[in-house]
From TrEMBL, chain A:
Species assigned in the record: Carex littledalei
PANTHER family xrefs: AUTOPHAGY-RELATED PROTEIN 101
MF terms (GO), sorted A to Z: protein kinase binding
Family: Belongs to the ATG101 family.
Domain of life: Eukaryota
Protein name per the record: Autophagy-related protein 101
TrEMBL record, chain B:
A single BP term in Gene Ontology: piecemeal microautophagy of the nucleus
GO cellular component, one term: Atg1/ULK1 kinase complex
Database matches in PANTHER family: AUTOPHAGY-RELATED PROTEIN 13 (PTHR13430:SF4), PTHR13430
Keywords: Autophagy
Pfam family, any one: ATG13
Region described as Disordered: spans on this chain: 238-501, 513-532
Protein name per its UniProtKB record: Autophagy-related protein 13-like isoform X2
Biased composition (Polar residues): 247-260
Limits of the Autophagy-related protein 13 N-terminal domain: 90-210
Length: 215, 578
C-alpha cells in the first residue's frame, strides 16, 4: 500500500494564532478520516471568519489540544525555526521474516504535513522600526489587519486543499471496521521542527520500508 | 446493527439515501430553523443516523421519505438552489447564491464503467461506493461551512432581528442554466465523483464568491406587541401556561400543522389548497423559512405568492414555509401539577396578609371554620416565604411563580395549617403550599396537618398546629407542641387585652351624656335601663368569649350604676324625711 502524503501550504502565524489555526486544520483532517459514526459539530473560529467541523470524538479533541499545547511550548523554546506537525494514519500489520518471529508494525498509509512559520519576531521588529513615526499605531494595526486577512485566506485555502485531497485519494484507505464510532483508523500526531523533519522522514522510511510519495 | 450496507444492498438505495442526506445537510446549513434540535450525545444513533456514518439529526418532514425525492429514480439529477429572497420588496427578484447539483452520470458506452460488473465484484463495488460516499458527504458538509452563504446563514440564525433578506431554497430535478453574465458571477467547486454501478455519482456547487452586493441589513426590529395576558394581569388565566416567545408559539403551530399535512397523504405537501401533491409536479418544491421573528406569528403556510415573484423556472412553484422545529428556547414557566389542580386555587383570590402582630393574634383567637374568610391570618414567616419559592429547575418561572405561590401558600396555612413539605424539594412551591386540596390533606393525614420542618419561626403559629404521626416528622412534632403551648399562653393574655378593648368600646357607647344630674339621673336610669335591656339583648347575640367578658363587665357597670342610683335615691329620701 502506498503512503499518500499531503503537504499543506505554509501558514505565517503569530504566537496567539497557532491554536486556532491548528484546530481548524487538524479537525478538518480528522473529520475526513474518522470514518466511524460521528455527530458533527460546527465550531466558529474566534480569530477568523471561519467555521470548521469537529467529528465530536472527545478523545480526538483531547489529543489535539494536548499536541497543540506541546507545539506551542516547543515553539516558544525554539523560535525562528520552521515548525511542522505531522498527522499520520497507519494500520498494524504483522510482518513475518525468515529469521525472526512475526512482529506487528505500523504501516503508514497517509500523512498530512502542517507547516507553520511563527512571525512574532518579525512583526515586533517592524513595530520597533515604526515606533519613531507619528502613525506607528495605525501602521501596526493595518499591518496586523492585512496579516489576519491573509492568514484567514491561507487557512481557508488549506481547508479546501484538505477536502480536495481527502476526496480524491480514497483508494488507499483501509477497510472501515464495522460498527465503529468516531475514529476508524489509528493515528499519531508528531511535532517536527525544521532540523528534524527531514531526518524524521528518513527514519520512518527506513523503518516502514515503504516508499513515500511526494505530493 | 451493521453500519455498512450488506453486500446485497442495492446501489440504488445507497444513491437514494446519499441524495437525501446531502439535501438534509444542505438545507440544515442554509435554511434557518429548518433543522431540528441538536442531537443529544446520549441518544443512541438511529438508523438514519447510521447512513454514511453521519448523524445529522431528524430530517425535516419533507425528507422523511427519500424515495419521494426522486420519483423517477436515482438517475434523475437533484438540483438545490439556495436563494436570497428580499423580504420587504416582493417585486424584487430572488437571487441564487448557491446551486448544488448531485446526479448519477451514466458513463459513456465506450467507458469501461459501462460494462456490467460481475456479481462477485458487485459486493466489492458496493462497499467501495459506500465508503467513498461517506467521505464525499463529509466533504459536502465541510464545504458548506466554507462558502460565503454560511455567513449569511449564521447571521439569520443568530439574531432575533429580521433582515431585509431571507434564505430560501428550491429543489428540483431540472435547473435553468445561468446566462453568461450570471455564469461569470459564479464560481464552481467539483467534488470527486464516486463510482457506482449506475455511473458516477457527481456533486458540484456553483456559488457567488461575494454577497456584498445584496447589502444584507437589519430591516426592522420585532414589531411592538401589546401583551394583554402578561403574568399577573387580571385578564390572564392563572392556570394558563405561557409560551416562551411568539416564535415558539408559531413554530409549534407550524410544525404541528405541517406534520399533519405530511401524514395526511403520506408525503409532504404544500399549503396551498389547490396545490397538487408535492412530487406530482415536475419534481420541484420550494420552501421559505419562517422568515425571521417578525413573521413567525403569521400562519406558517401562506398562499402561494408565485404570481408576485418572477418565475424563473418553467413549472409551477409552490411557496410554503418549511417545517421547522421549536427553537431550543427555555421552557416557559409552568405551574406544578398540584398547583394547578388545587381547588382552593380556583376558589379564592389571594388573601392579603396583615402586618401587625395583634392581627396575627386576632386570627388565632377565633378559628371559625364556618367563615374561612375571617381575618385571622398570621403574617408569613421568612421561612415560609422561602419554601414557597418555585423549584430551581425553571429559572424563568421563579419570578413568575413566587408571588402567587406565596400568597396561596399563606392562604392555605392560615386556614388549615401548612401541610408537610416534600422531602426532595423538587417542586417546593407547588407541593409545599398546595399539596393537593385541603380536604386531601385532611384525609391523608387523618385530619391532622403537619407543620413543615422549616417553619421554625417562633412567632408563627397555626391555629390547628398538631403533631404529625409520621415518625420522620419528629422535629416538626416538637415544633408543633411548642407552638401549641405558645398558642395557649398567648390566647389568655390576648383575650384580656381584647376584652378590655371591647369593654372600653362598650363603655364609650353606653356612657351617660353630660346633662343635669336630676334629669340625667332619671333619664340616664331609664336610658340605662333601656340600654341595659338593649345591651343585654345584644349581649346574648355573640357567643364569643370576649363578648362574654364584655357582658360581664357591662353587668358590673350596670350594677354599679344601679347601686349608685339607689344610694342616691336613698339619700334623697332620707333628706326629705328629715
Amino acid at each position: 500500500m502506498n503512503c499518500e502524503s499531503c503537504e499543506l501550504k505554509e501558514l505565517e502565524v503569530e504566537q496567539f494564532e497557532i491554536r486556532e489555526a491548528l484546530r481548524c486544520i487538524l479537525h478538518t483532517i480528522f473529520f475526513h478520516r474518522a470514518l466511524g459514526l460521528v455527530r458533527p459539530r460546527d465550531v466558529d473560529c474566534e480569530l477568523f471568519e471561519l467555521t470548521y467541523v469537529q467529528c465530536g470524538v472527545p478523545e480526538v479533541e483531547k489529543e489535539i489540544e494536548e499536541k497543540i499545547n506541546e507545539f506551542i511550548t516547543k515553539v516558544s523554546k525554539h523560535p525562528n525555526r520552521r515548525n511542522q506537525i505531522c498527522l499520520s494514519f497507519y494500520e498494524m500489520k504483522s510482518k513475518q521474516s525468515a529469521w525472526s518471529s512475526s512482529k506487528t508494525e505500523r504501516v503508514y498509509w497517509e500523512r498530512w504535513f502542517v507547516n507553520l512559520q511563527i512571525i512574532n519576531q518579525r512583526v515586533n521588529t517592524k513595530s520597533k522600526q515604526t515606533r519613531v513615526g507619528l502613525d506607528h499605531g495605525e501602521f501596526t494595526f493595518e499591518e496586523k489587519k492585512l496579516h489576519r486577512s491573509a492568514l484567514e485566506a491561507s487557512i481557508r485555502e488549506n481547508l479546501l486543499r484538505i477536502i480536495k485531497f481527502a476526496n480524491e485519494k480514497m483508494d488507499h484507505l483501509p477497510h472501515i471496521p464495522p460498527n465503529v464510532e468516531g475514529i476508524s483508523y489509528p493515528y499519531e500526531i508528531a511535532i517536527l521542527s525544521s532540523a528534524e523533519s527531514s531526518l524524521d522522514i528518513l527514519k520512518r522510511m527506513l523503518q516502514t520500508g515503504h516508499q513515500t510519495t511526494l505530493s | 446493527m451493521a453500519a455498512q450496507p450488506d453486500p446485497g444492498r442495492s446501489t440504488e438505495q445507497i444513491v437514494s439515501q446519499f441524495l437525501s442526506k446531502a439535501l438534509h445537510a444542505i438545507l440544515a446549513a442554509r435554511i434557518p430553523f429548518i433543522h431540528g434540535p441538536t442531537i443529544p450525545t446520549s441518544r443512541p444513533p438511529r438508523k438514519r443516523d447510521r447512513w454514511f456514518h453521519l448523524a445529522l439529526g431528524d430530517p425535516p418532514p419533507a425528507l422523511e421519505h427519500p424515495s419521494g425525492l426522486l420519483p423517477n429514480g436515482v438517475m434523475e439529477p437533484l438540483v438545490v438552489d439556495i436563494l436570497l429572497s428580499p423580504r420587504e420588496d416582493p417585486t424584487m427578484p430572488e437571487a441564487i447564491v448557491e446551486r448544488w447539483v448531485a446526479q448519477c452520470e451514466v458513463p459513456a458506452p465506450w467507458s469501461p464503467l459501462h460494462s456490467p460488473a460481475e456479481s462477485s465484484s458487485n459486493s466489492f463495488l458496493v462497499k467501495r461506493t459506500y465508503k467513498k460516499s461517506i467521505i464525499l458527504l463529509r466533504s459536502i458538509y465541510s464545504v458548506l461551512r466554507l462558502l460565503p452563504a454560511q455567513r449569511v446563514f449564521k447571521m439569520l440564525c443568530a439574531s432575533n432581528q429580521s433582515y431585509n433578506y431571507d434564505l430560501t431554497y428550491r429543489v428540483s430535478s431540472f435547473a435553468e442554466p445561468f446566462s453568461r453574465k450570471e455564469e461569470a458571477e459564479f464560481r464552481s467547486h467539483y467534488f470527486s465523483p464516486v463510482e457506482t454501478q449506475y455511473g458516477q455519482l457527481a456533486v458540484s456547487v456553483q456559488y457567488r464568491p461575494s454577497l456584498s452586493q445584496f447589502n444584507l441589513e437589519i430591516s426592522s426590529l420585532l414589531p411592538p406587541m401589546l401583551i394583554t395576558d402578561y403574568v399577573g394581569s387580571p385578564a390572564a388565566d392563572p392556570m394558563r401556561t405561557f409560551p416562551a416567545s411568539p416564535s415558539e408559539r408559531s413554530a409549534t403551530r407550524s410544525s404541528i400543522s405541517y406534520s399533519f399535512r405530511g401524514s395526511r397523504d403520506g408525503r409532504p405537501s404544500t399549503s396551498a389548497p389547490a396545490s397538487a401533491p408535492l412530487f406530482n409536479r415536475p419534481h420541484s418544491w420550494t420552501g421559505a423559512p419562517n422568515e425571521g421573528p417578525s413573521h413567525r406569528a403569521q400562519p406558517a403556510h401562506q398562499p402561494p405568492t408565485g404570481s408576485q415573484r418572477k418565475p424563473t423556472f418553467n413549472f409551477d412553484e409552490f411557496k410554503f414555509s418549511p417545517p421547522f422545529y421549536m427553537s431550543p428556547t427555555p421552557s416557559p414557566p409552568k405551574f406544578s401539577g398540584s398547583y394547578m389542580q388545587s381547588p382552593l386555587r380556583a376558589e379564592s383570590a389571594p388573601v392579603s396578609i396583615p402586618q401587625s402582630g395583634t392581627s396575627k393574634v386576632k386570627g388565632l383567637r377565633s378559628p371559625n371554620l364556618s367563615d374561612p374568610t375571617r381575618n385571622f391570618l398570621p403574617p408569613p414567616s421568612p421561612k415560609s416565604a422561602r419554601t414557597a419559592e418555585p423549584s430551581s429547575q425553571d429559572s424563568e418561572s421563579k419570578s413568575f411563580r413566587k408571588p402567587d405561590g406565596l400568597r396561596i401558600s399563606d392562604a392555605y396555612s392560615n386556614m388549615y395549617g401548612t401541610p408537610k413539605g416534600p422531602k426532595d424539594g423538587k417542586d417546593d412551591s407547588g407541593r409545599f403550599s398546595l399539596s393537593g386540596s385541603p380536604r386531601f390533606t385532611f384525609s391523608r393525614s387523618s385530619s391532622r396537618i403537619s407543620v413543615p420542618d422549616d417553619l421554625d419561626d417562633p412567632d408563627f403559629s397555626y391555629p390547628f398546629a398538631v403533631d404529625d404521626v409520621d415518625s420522620s416528622d419528629s422535629q416538626a412534632r416538637s415544633n408543633d407542641g411548642k407552638e401549641a403551648l405558645d398558642f395557649g399562653h398567648a390566647s389568655s393574655s390576648h383575650k384580656s387585652q381584647d376584652a378590655a378593648v371591647g369593654e372600653l368600646v362598650h363603655m364609650l357607647k353606653t356612657a351617660a351624656p353630660l346633662r343635669d344630674s336630676t334629669y340625667s339621673s332619671q333619664s340616664s336610669k331609664s336610658e340605662l335601663q333601656e340600654e341595659g335591656l338593649g345591651s343585654t339583648s345584644s349581649f346574648f347575640m355573640s357567643r364569643m368569649a370576649s363578648d362574654a367578658l364584655d357582658e360581664l363587665q357591662s353587668y358590673k357597670n350596670i350594677k354599679e350604676m344601679l347601686l349608685s342610683q339607689s344610694r342616691a335615691k336613698l339619700h334623697e329620701s332620707l333628706r326629705r324625711n328629715n
